[in-house]
Amino acid sequence: MIRLLETAFKQISALPEREQNMYAKNILEEVESEKKWDNLLSEYEQEILHDISNISPAINDANDGIGHNTSLKINL
To answer: 45: number of CA atoms within 13 Å, CB side?
Structure first.
C-alpha cells in the first residue's frame, strides 16, 4: 500500500466508527464507479476499433480509384 493511503487509513481509523464506515463506503463506491467506467470505455473502444476496421477497406478502395497523384492544387 502506498504511503498516502496508509496515512489516510491511519487518520480515518482514529475517527468514530460511524465516520470510518462513511469513508469506507465512499471509497468502495468510488472504486466500483471506476470499474464501471473502465468497462464502459473499454466496450466503446472495441466498438470504435470494429467500426474503423470496417471503414478502412472502403477508404482503401476509394483511394485506389483516385490514382497515385497526391498533389493538391487550390485556386483562390
So the answer is: 6
